[in-house]
Amino acid sequence: MKKARFLVLVLAAAITLTGAGYAYWSDGVTINSTVNTGKLEAKFDSSKTEIKFNDNNRNVATGGVVYDVPEHNGDREAAARYANVTLNNLYPGATAEIELNIINNSTIPVKLAGIAFTNQSVFDATKATISVDFDYNEDGVKDYTVDDILSDTAKMQLEGLNNVEIAAGKDVAIKAHVSISADLQNDENKTLNFIIAPTFQQFNK
Amino acid sequence: VGKNMKPDNYILKISYKARCFLLIILMTALYMMDIPAIASLMSGYIFNYILKPVLWLGLIFIVYIFPKVHPKGKLRLKSFINWWAFNFAIIFIAASVVGGFFNSFGKSPYSHTLKGMALNILLVGSAVMGREIIRSYLVNSLCKKENYIIFILVSLFFAIASISFSSFLRFNGVQDVVKFSAQSFAPEFSKSLLATYLAFLGGAVPSIIYIGTIEAVNWLSPILPNLRWITTTFIGVLCPIFSFITLQSMYIKESRQKVIRDEKEDSVFAWIVTTVISIGIIWFSVGVFPIYPSVIATGSMEPIIKPGDVILVKKDIDRMKLNIGDIIQFKSDNVLISHRIIESLEVSGEKVYKTKGDNNSIADSEFVKPEQVKGTIVKIVPKIGWPTLLLKSRNEVPLEKVQF
Predict the structure, then answer these.
(1) Which of B175, B190, B287 sits opposite A23 (nearest CB)?
(2) What are B49-83's pLDDT values in tens digits?
(3) pLDDT at B60
(4) B36/A23 Cβ within 8 A
């Protein structure tokens, strides 16, 4: 009995201290959330797009990225926040690595609030695995990975992104890895089309 | 016979430990599979919905072929323990819902198609069953009577096992570590501790009931409480640990043949109330809630606010739309000042407020920017801040900043 009470005391003390930390940190957040300064312009940098297929692809599968979606036809600023990726003529065992780049052209740092991922293709989702990794500081080291973007857990993982800060003028590299299941029998010449749309949030330190 | 007993006993003991060790190793291996490098070797679908459930079932099978270990609670109290395991799960869920009313509710991120739900039940259900059956095996093999060191070790092990491996890999500074410990680790530990105690008393069934009910609501309910991390910590840690001490005291009472009413029952309740109130008071004073208290040290706002009065400051306000006449608290070079807004201006395109203490002859020399504003004063409680002032008076306050 007494030992259990002791545990309660220890945990309660820990909670109390955590509260102090929360008050201290949330203090900053409430104040800063009302500040309005600078311009917010974070978007994809279309000059840094690259698609690499598996080594033995021999130009069979092809692909491209368009920075546009139908609803933003003409509005290039808005469209540049959408990467519309299409991979054509896929076959069993094909893999592709799509490298995208988000640049923060704002005068202030922005936070990546989340990434919306829309699968546009009429494609059996169980036959393709799409994982996405992020390299926040462009040093070639993966900083964050969402393993299976089509799974339910991916949504949760993408929520975990909201701590990512992109300083003014800096980039974040996003690499999407697509691999087509080897059991895609009699199912060649498939097209995979998905849209990656990051959302940004302005904040101040 | 006596001579032969000893080596037999010895082997039995060793093999018990070896079995526990084997289970721990196997569970760790299963857990380590979540490392991105390993998980990405196959499709997420096969990995999550086929391989993992099969491996959990394999572990359950291993426990099944092991010699049985019995829970240490009284057999006649089995249904009592199961019933309370369910009640504690409901209390936990209810507390989270109440927390949701204070914070907010959100749409569940999990799939709610029939197929999605079935797959999630398979994924989560197999893991919960596997974990709880192993928990029960470990705790009941390793302790004969209440042993807190074993309880805590087992609970720690299972708390870590129920947090996905990748969440340990994304810390970004002290704040992240504290937040993670408070929001994920501590609540998991507390829940795990209660589950361990339930497993100790009643075997795997009550701990599956407890964890399973909570997980089922979490994965299947279309709407979930969307709690601030501090609320998650508060409910997640306190609810299971209070359930733990309540269960303990109820079990002790029930396990006696005669029901004796003593003060112990009340003392658990008193403990819970005292703890909650103490945390509440301290949290209020450090500013966890939307309204926090602040002691006034000078007479610049007399006669409305006198030195030694406590003001209640409301944090949750629109700082861009404060009115002339509002008394605000703001920070200027680390000194908190509470003065009245006398003018709202725009200086080089930015909104600023001109402030003045009621008792001062001139306005404050520096304008207050919205981001400096901590809140508006909603209530003044006279005189109760004197003790704080006496304690603080030793610290030097740069008076030229305060402007009488």
Answers:
(1) B287
(2) 888 899 999 999 999 988 888 898 888 899 999 99
(3) 93
(4) no
Q: Which residue of B has its CA nearest to A177?
A: B40
Q: Out of B241, B287, B318, whose CB is closest to A11?
A: B241
**β-strands B310-314, B291-295: how paired?**
antiparallel
Residues of A contacting chain B (CB within 8 angstroms): 1, 3-5, 7-8, 11-12, 14-16, 18-23, 25-27, 30-32, 34-36, 126, 129, 131, 144-145, 147-148, 150-153, 155-157, 159-160, 163, 181, 204
Q: Which of A27, A30, A32, A35 would you mutate first to test chain B, the one with the most B CBs within 10 A? A: A30
What per-residue confidence (pLDDT) applies to B298? 83
Peptide linkage before B36 cis (omega within 30 of 0): no
Q: Which residues of A touch B193 (CB under 8 A)?
A: 7
Separation between Cα atoms, residue B102 and residue B114, nearest integer Å: 32
Interchain pair A19, B372: CB under 8 A: no
Give the Cα separation of B34 and B26 in Å (integer). 14
Give residue for tokens 């005189």: B383
E strand map for B198-286: 223-226
Name residue, tokens 């019933």: B83
Q: What interface predicted TM-score (ipTM) does this complex get?
A: 0.76
Contacts of A19 in chain B (CB under 8 A): 230, 279, 282-283, 286, 288
Chain A residues in contact with B120 (beta carbon < 8 A)? 152
Burial category of B268 from C-beta neighbours within 10 Å (exposed 0-12, middle 13-18, buried 19 and up): buried
Q: Which of B109, B152, B178 sits opposite A18 (nearest CB)?
A: B178
Q: Given this model, what pLDDT does residue A33 score?
A: 34
- Rounded-to-integer distance, Cα A192 and Cα B70, Å: 55
The alpha-carbon gap from A134 to the nearest alpha carbon of chain B, in Å, equals: 12
Work out the pLDDT band at A37, boundaries 50, 70, 90: very low
- Which residue of B lies nearest to A25 if distances are taken between CA atoms? B175
CA distances from B340 to B337, B357, B373 (A): 10, 6, 12
Q: Which of A149, A205, A204, A138 is nearest to A178 (CA)?
A: A149
Q: Classify B130 as helix, strand or coil.
A: helix
Query: Nearest 10 degrees: CA dihedral of A134, A136, A138, A140?
Result: -50
Q: Give yes or no for a contact between B242 and B272, defined as CB atoms under 8 angstroms apart.
A: yes
Which value, to the nearest 10 degrees, does the dihedral of the CA atoms of residues B3, B9, B12, B18 take? -110
B137 with B20: CB under 8 angstroms? yes
Q: Is the dihedral of CA B33, B34, B37, B43 positive or negative?
A: positive
Q: Do B371 and A204 touch (CB under 8 A)?
A: yes
- List beta partners, residue A75: none
Residue with tokens 């200027």: B332
